[in-house]
Amino acid sequence: MKKKEKSIFKCQSCGYQCPQWMGKCPDCGGWDTLVAERQNALLGSKGAGGQTFARPVPMDSIQFEEEPRSQTQIKEFDRVLGGGIVPGTLVLIGGDPGIGKSTLMLQVLAKLSAAGKKTLYVSGEESIRQLKMRGKRLAAESNAMLVAAETDLDAILAMAEQEKPDAMVVDSIQTVYNPDIASTPGSVTQIREASMRLMSMAKKTGIPVFLVGHVTKVGAIAGPRIMEHMVDTVLYFEGDRSHVFRILRAVKNRFGSTNEIGVFEMKEKGLAEVPNPSAVFLSERPVNTPGSVVTASMEGTRPILVEIQGLASSSGFGTPRRTVLGLDHNRVALIAAVMEKRLGMNLSGLDIFMNVAGGVKVTEPAADLGIAIALASSFLDRPVPEGTTVLGEVGLTGEIRAVSHGEQRIKEAVKMGFTRCLVPENSLKQVPEIKGIQIQGVSSLKQIMALVF
Predict the structure, then answer these.
(1) Helical (H) or strand (E) element with 309
(2) Is the full-model pTM beyond 0.70?
(3) Taking burial as the number of CB atoms within 10 A of a residue's CB, which of 85, 111, 214, 269 is the most buried?
């Protein structure tokens, strides 16, 4: 019995356990993250003897009928989930403080309630009066939407069992605690216990549960990574609070693609969908200005046109600066080195600044050619001809490599009024003739520089 009462020290970042306190976690390297917890709270009360186990069955003998997904009528949200909410799913949504996680969840439940479904919103950070104030501002009031201010895990589970809602939100998972466990709310043990029991409840009852999670300084969801492994879907709500646009991105989805994104605009009455992101991101694009070019980025099955801006200027310091927003810093450095070697542009002594307008992030290689053209346009102080868009991957020898989904990208450019598209030579075989736009193939950086400038 005394052995069970013994305390162990557990890392609050990664879950590492050790018998004595240390200043630095040996596993994740975090400082001052080891906290003492009673070991009896972590041990099971029953031994292995007497347990009953489920018997394995052949896969082809399982009776299965595909259940229809619940549509929230927020198309951008449904797109990211893979077409709607799957019954019994456990979804974790994270994001920076004030980015709009709670606002989005309240609007989702309001849409479901308006469709005649019973919903439950459990808040551990706000009182029911504060929820009422926010719901009134967002026009998210309904008799079918129940709200509660509760942090006790047992009380939340009892509430769900009694009310039997069609969807449930717990905001946030870091505030939920089990009084039987001797550790503070937000600790590894509490978060793991709460996630495990909520997951079990969702699978048994078929109630979809959304967990709102805080994000650490490095951008990861606070708490153990095991929580991300336990849930069915992990969503990140991204965006700069100084910009009005927010991007909902799936990094894990057992019931859909992880490549889809949803674009929202923060307004006075909550988040509004952006059905045509290309038009929004290009709405303030300058005309005939050096250093600006448009390229097409694929986000899942959706092509989005974005403006890449580049600035190459003389440096006032011994070491030139490299400031990159919305692009991969290493990718920009690589392309600048290729341009210097293959094109003879002396960029090593210049400050280089790169930006994707609108606060969106572009990580795919198809934006390489856009980066190169934007830098060359600024270096030569010559604007890219109006109505021209580019796409392609740049290799170390200066060759232009083919990219996927070329036809969809070009069709999106036609919709936005572009009349000329420069694509890799090898992509011309895969792209049919498209009315309203001139498609030109290029095989090297030297060739495209001659065509554009």
Answers:
(1) strand 302-314
(2) yes
(3) 85
